[in-house]
Design brief:
Strand content: under 5%
Helix content: 55-70%
Radius of gyration: 23 Å
Order of helices and strands: HHHHHHHHHHHHHHHH
Bound molecules: zinc ion
Shape: globular
Oligomer: single chain
Structural class: mainly alpha
Number of helices: 16
Number of strands: 0
Amino acid sequence: MVDRLSALWQWVWEYLVPHGASRQQSIPGFVLDSAEYVLKSYFWFILVSLFIYFFFLRKGPRTLGGAFNHILPKKIYTHPSFKVDLSIVPLAWFLSFTVYASLTLGAGAMQLWLSSTFGPTSYSLGTGALAITLQVVFALLGADFARFLWHYQAHKVAFFWEFHKGHHSPEVLHPVLIRTHPVDMIIRLAYMQVGGGLIGGSLMYVTGVQATAAAASAMAVVGALLHILQMFEHSHIPISFGKTLDRIFYPPHFHPFHHSALIQHRDKNLGITGGLTLWDKVFGTLYIPSPGEMDEIEFGATLEERGAHNPHRSFMRFLVSPFVEAFRTLRPRQKDAALGTATLEQLAD
Ligand SMILES: [Zn+2]
Ligand SMILES: [Zn+2]
């Protein structure tokens, strides 16, 4: 029985679960891996959405056709915003492969460095199941908080916002292929890998958890499960963990409000699905939506920057304009500059 279950899991993992690159590091291999990743991701998105449609959603006809019309609506996949996202596919693929791949490595390296510098702690939790679980939990916790700090900086510092704005300029949300500017992506990965590693590794050191290679395999499974859940962040299918759990773990249905251009939702819900809601609570950025409120969202960076006024209405604009706009934020504002000149003239008098 156990053998059969393990064989079934192997088969599901191999053929159905979206996970990192397995083919050789060649361009055709990368393209095949990427296409497989997107197809497997959509398979889970459709499967879970069908379950939600038939058991939880009250609207629409309860037929397979009605379900697919709701899950994959034409108005999303024919929208000009979706066409811009399609042109960014290679970047989106690259991003999806790198997020969870090496989270435990950074934490493990930090734990090893602390042990060799300050000596091992007098107690040890060893390398068994508990230590592996804690290593994964600490790596996730560190990456979650570090990611939150990146996101807070991306929204609150004008220079970084110009690069992060690319993630907010889409006017429709759909899973897997959501756009992210490469500069924003690199800063985010640096926060998660380096910052997350420092925090996770320190937690491992003080609790006596030893770094193990087995934690990387466990993280691959957890990362794949989180990926499936996180796809619902960028979709119109709302998933809540329930009123109480939503206050502890950030649920997918909080994230569409983060993409809302409406002023009451702006710069809110900076966390990530599966992470802690606590960070948003502490930093004063939590927005708990009321039932049905998702239908009222207008997606975009701001209400003024939509449609013909969307600064990222083409691939080139999405890629190039953030550099121009970000460096513009570093120049003193015209009014301040004029004031500065006036003051200098007065001083000269
Ligand atoms: Zn954001
Ligand atoms: Zn998002």
